[in-house]
Amino acid sequence: MSPCKIEDFKTISNQLKELLGLDKSPVAIKLFIDEEDAKEVLPKADDKIRHCQRVFKAASEKVSCYATLEEQQCQGGAAVLGLRDYPKPLKTGKKYFSLGRFASQGSAIHELSQVPKVETVMSAVGYAPLEDAEFEPDVIVLYALPEQGMKIAQAYGYVLGKRFNASYAGIQSVCADVVAGPYKNKEPNMTLGCDGSRGTTSVKPDELVIGLTAENLGCMLNSLESIMNKN
Predict the structure, then answer these.
(1) For residues 220 and 197, is the Cβ–Cβ distance under 8 A?
(2) Cβ distance 77 to 197 under 8 Å?
(3) Which residues are within 8 A (CB) of 55 and not within 5 positions of it... i.e. 6 or more apart?
(4) Residue 209: other Cβ atoms inside 10 A
(5) Fewer Cβ close by (within 10 Å): the C or N end of the chain?
(6) Is the CB of residue 203 less than 8 Å from the CB of residue 197?
(7) 45 with 54: CB under 8 angstroms?
(8) Between the CA of residue 189 and those of 5, 12, 94, 175, 181, what are the distances in Å?
């Protein structure tokens, strides 16, 4: 759980935007085991779109909602978020092989075996601009330029003395790379996106996507402030 109080999220969001110069809101993401818990803090989505589209809408249009499997258009994204098992065409590698993403089904299967996946069975995913979040997020997603991503990497190492190890493959980026990965591994990650997340949203060609663990949000913010004050 995040050490921050819910009433602090507006301040934290504003500080992140100001320190990094972000032009979109940080997005609070929460995975709900029980849908009833989601209903208490968010309205249910009334459309069926991809997870990556919903994250982008929260960042750029400030849309808050929760979505169950029924409201998730991308079933691969739904699978890595714990809402369902992988569809057979993905599990067997057939889907990505047929799209020309891999030289063989074997390569596709091997790659998918390394994709972060939430193992706990979830009922819903919650989305909100961080400043409007009325729940404690599991992950915070940022749309950032490379220089802003550099500052995040510097802040990560400022106290911990650790390198920021980005892991991505150009597939399942906003679902697996920056939500399922940080949720499961308790480490931040960044990704360059994928065909789905770039093709169905208005993310800029020079933007990357970063997933921060909510547990370390306060430390990350303090480190950013220290770094920026020394520049």
Answers:
(1) no
(2) no
(3) 27, 29, 127, 141, 174, 179
(4) 29
(5) C
(6) yes
(7) yes
(8) 24, 19, 27, 12, 7
Integer Cα distance of 144 and 154 in angstroms? 14
DSSP-based three-state secondary structure for 100: coil
Asked if 149 and 210 count as a contact pair (C-beta separation under 8 A), the reply is yes
| Tens place of pLDDT per residue across the chain (231 aa) | 344 566 689 999 999 999 999 999 999 999 999 999 999 999 999 999 999 999 999 999 999 999 999 999 999 999 999 999 988 888 888 888 888 888 898 998 898 889 999 999 999 999 999 999 999 999 999 999 999 999 999 999 998 899 999 999 999 999 999 999 999 999 999 999 999 999 999 999 999 999 999 888 888 899 999 998 876
Strand (E) or helix (H) holding 38: helix 35-39
Query: How big is the chain, counted in residues?
Result: 231
Q: First-to-last CA distance in the chain? A: 32
Residues near 230 by Cβ (< 8 Å), separated by ≥ 6?
A: none
Query: 3-state class of 99 per DSSP?
Result: coil
